[in-house]
TrEMBL record:
InterPro entries: 4Fe4S_Fe-S-bd, 4Fe4S_Fe_S_CS, NADH_quinone_OxRdtase_chainI
Protein name: NADH dehydrogenase
Domain 4Fe-4S ferredoxin-type positions: 4-33, 52-81
Gene Ontology CC: one annotated term: membrane
Molecular functions (GO terms): 4 iron, 4 sulfur cluster binding; metal ion binding; oxidoreductase activity, acting on NAD(P)H; quinone binding
Cross-referenced PROSITE patterns: 4FE4S_FER_1, 4FE4S_FER_2
Keywords: 4Fe-4S, Cell membrane, Iron, Iron-sulfur, Membrane, Metal-binding, NAD, Quinone, Repeat, Translocase, Ubiquinone
Taxonomic superkingdom: Bacteria
Organism: Tessaracoccus flavescens
Pfam family, one: Fer4
Amino acid sequence: MIHGSIALIEDACTSCMICARECPTWCITLTSHMEQMVPAPGARPRTHNVLDTFTIDWALCMYCGVCIEQCPTDALEWAGAHVAPASSLAELAHGREQLGGGGA
């Protein structure tokens, strides 16, 4: 597989933040919030994380793949295309829309 950009599989992401913590350049940022799930009748209520934002700053990323290897839910994968050049550093910070995760 070509080590180009990294794609987010948003449905698989549990907002555990392992990718952000393990990244050697700290190029990944994410935010989430807790929501309460309504389980089957008689079961205790449970909470789970809901992903709000997920950003990779390609100006900092060194394309090592540590985030992909460490993700316990396989929510990150190599995408074949390289990241396109940009005219400013701010344009190299890609959010959920550019990473293939869609938007909310």
